[in-house]
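Milestone 3.1: sequence recovery, worked example.
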């Protein structure tokens, strides 16, 4: 596996690096969670997992033939450029022509690329990887992609080794993923956070902005290291109709079950999601219906939602020959919470409109940032006083054909040795009540708290 061919730099005419990729059909494959877990002993710290809400596609990535780190101010453009440079020099041994197989990039951006990093140092401003081994689960089939990078002269021997390793993983019995014992669950500055919400409300009432999303953090400590396998398994059992994701880096991982799509692109078809406005689920069907009905007609929540719809519509319209935005939201119900939801579908006009360009234009939507964007981001930096890291930011994949999907990395947390840090936020508008927003973020913490054994 050629990780970083530093010797090449010493040569006068460095040989051109080429990306080789081979795709085969896989038979007798264990379930995706078992397979992710079976890769732990060889690839712990260098794995990823992705599953979309309809479970149309599941990715399990092991190892890396290349890691791209965001170092420039415009991380979207930088990662796209570096990826294209390599993807332009590819040899693909692929009889199978399936979306999401072959060379593929997976990773996430930091929410605010202007901030210095604190507990998120390992992930920096964002990190993307081309895995050495990729399993793609689709409806009726599983594909194995192995990748390697070489100087372009000979087919790398690493390819055969990677394929053998991948095949061995298929027969490995998984380890039982168990969580260590929880020592404590701590809210961080809950009182100060409510004050910040009150401050934001004042700014909005003064007319300085229309909406701002403020997030807060919880900290959990364990008597041993938390690994993502147990959390992923719990989320998969507890959270349906969500994206499930794990992105490992060194001994840390970003894990979550997000209901929110930022953008999906298949050829020229795009899909985005307006998700904002929340209420808890009812204890029984009657209460649930009543709460859902209240949400659908609640002025404050409809307002929160409206800002997101109009922004996404305005951002996407110039790129599209067709854009369909329903007039009114419907409900999206998750296990613990229900949201106002407006799906947006469209067709982009030209090939230059890549998923990276769309993600850059959209992020952050007013579901995580605010309106106006610049003012809201400044308020977030000033009022939140924390580092969101990859929370609330685009996370997902792109294949070499330009198809891909980014979710918004919410309902998520950072697992760091014997600690877990969870993040949840809410849309603050003119008539927000700090105590109510505090409760709403409490509901949003529930899925991760439960999966982490803290509830
Ligand atoms: C910010 C979060 O969620 C966002 C805020 C919502 C709201 O305030 O109603 C709803 C859905 C999300 O877009 C989060 O879960 O952390
Ligand atoms: Mg809200």
């Amino acid at each position: 596996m050629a990780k970083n061919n530093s010797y090449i730099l010493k040569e006068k005419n460095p040989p051109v690096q080429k990306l080789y990729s081979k795709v085969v059909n896989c038979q007798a494959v264990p379930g995706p969670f078992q397979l992710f877990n079976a890769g732990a002993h060889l690839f712990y710290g260098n794995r990823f997992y992705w599953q979309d809400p309809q479970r149309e596609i599941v990715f399990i990535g092991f190892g890396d033939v290349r890691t791209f780190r965001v170092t420039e101010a415009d991380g979207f453009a930088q990662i796209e450029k570096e990826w294209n440079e390599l993807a332009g020099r590819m040899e693909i041994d692929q009889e199978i022509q399936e979306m999401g197989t072959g060379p593929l990039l997976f990773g996430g951006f930091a929410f605010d690329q202007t901030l210095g990093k604190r507990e998120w140092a390992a992930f920096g401003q964002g990190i993307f990887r081309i895995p050495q081994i990729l399993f793609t689960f689709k409806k009726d089939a599983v594909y194995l992609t192995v990748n390697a990078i070489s100087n372009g002269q000979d087919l790398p021997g690493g390819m055969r080794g990677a394929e053998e390793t991948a095949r061995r993983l298929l027969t490995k019995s998984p380890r039982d993923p168990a969580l260590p014992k929880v020592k404590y669950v701590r809210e961080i500055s809950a009182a100060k956070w409510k004050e910040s919400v009150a401050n934001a409300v004042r700014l909005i009432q003064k007319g300085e902005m229309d909406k701002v999303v403020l997030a807060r953090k919880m900290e959990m400590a364990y008597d041993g290291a938390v690994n993502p396998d147990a959390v992923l398994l719990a989320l998969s059992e507890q959270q349906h109709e969500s994206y499930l994701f794990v992105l490992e880096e060194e001994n840390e991982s970003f894990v979550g079950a997000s209901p929110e799509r930022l953008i999906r692109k298949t050829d020229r078809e795009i899909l985005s999601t307006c998700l904002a406005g929340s209420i808890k689920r009812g204890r029984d069907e009657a209460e649930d219906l009543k709460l859902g009905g209240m949400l659908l007609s609640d002025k404050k929540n409809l307002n929160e939602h409206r800002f997101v719809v109009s922004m996404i519509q305005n951002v996407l319209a110039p790129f599209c020959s067709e854009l369909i935005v329903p007039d009114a939201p419907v409900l999206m119900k998750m296990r613990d919470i229900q949201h106002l939801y407006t799906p947006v579908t469209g067709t982009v006009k030209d090939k230059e409109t890549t998923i990276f360009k769309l993600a850059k234009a959209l992020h952050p939507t007013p579901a995580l940032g605010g309106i106006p964007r610049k003012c809201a981001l400044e308020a977030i930096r000033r009022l939140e006083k924390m580092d969101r890291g990859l929370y609330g930011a685009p996370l997902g994949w792109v294949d070499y054909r330009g198809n891909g999907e980014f979710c918004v990395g919410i309902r998520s947390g950072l697992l760091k040795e014997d600690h877990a840090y969870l993040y949840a936020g809410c849309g603050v508008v003119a008539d927000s009540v700090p105590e109510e927003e505090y409760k709403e973020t409490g509901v949003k913490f529930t899925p991760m708290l439960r999966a982490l054994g803290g509830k």
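Residues 133 and 165 are 9 Å apart (CA to CA). Residues 1-11 have pLDDT under 50 and may be disordered.
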